[in-house]
Design goal:
It is built from 4 helices and 3 strands; from the N terminus they run H-H-E-E-E-H-H. It has 140 residues and is α+β, with helices and mostly antiparallel strands. It has one domain. Strands 1-3-2 form a 3-stranded mixed beta sheet, sandwiched between helices. A hairpin with a 4-residue loop joins strand 2 and strand 3.
Length: 140
């Protein structure tokens, strides 16, 4: 970890509107909320926001090379060691070029809505892809 910065939300009203307006997508609004001067292109930028509302736990924004994760899960609970830690790890997986996969009996970190097996499991090919991307020292 290079640094931790606490900052006020940039364009918070627009994000709140996206959370309650069905026609808007919080993920589409997110890039407009990030102050460009706070983004570094050579490192993983991780933003923790308080609440994504009832639909999301996090997002990876490949164009901005930013992982965003919420402190409060879609059920309205602050569970930083359970669901929210899983969401953050899942989104970091996307930054390491890992795509969604089907849920299997073994489970998988990159499977969405999967309660089977291990929610942290990655198969050997996923581990290899992530290691290759990490070797570059920057997000995809």
């Amino acid at each position: 970890m290079e640094s931790v910065v606490r900052e006020d939300a940039h364009r918070e009203a627009a994000f709140r509107e996206a959370l309650i307006n069905q026609a808007l997508s919080p993920v589409k609004v997110l890039p407009t909320l990030l102050a460009p001067e706070n983004l570094d292109t050579d490192i993983w930028n991780v933003f923790l926001i308080r609440d994504f509302g009832p639909t999301l736990g996090g997002a990876y924004l490949p164009r901005q090379k930013v992982v965003v994760s919420a402190e409060i899960d879609p059920r309205g609970q602050r569970d930083v060691t359970g669901d929210m830690a899983h969401s953050l790890a899942h989104e970091l997986g996307h930054s390491l070029v890992l795509a969604h996969v089907p849920c299997t009996r073994a489970g998988n970190l990159m499977a969405t809505d999967c309660s089977a097996g291990s929610r942290t499991y990655l198969d050997p090919s996923q581990v290899t892809r992530a290691q290759l991307q990490a070797h570059f020292g920057r997000p995809f």
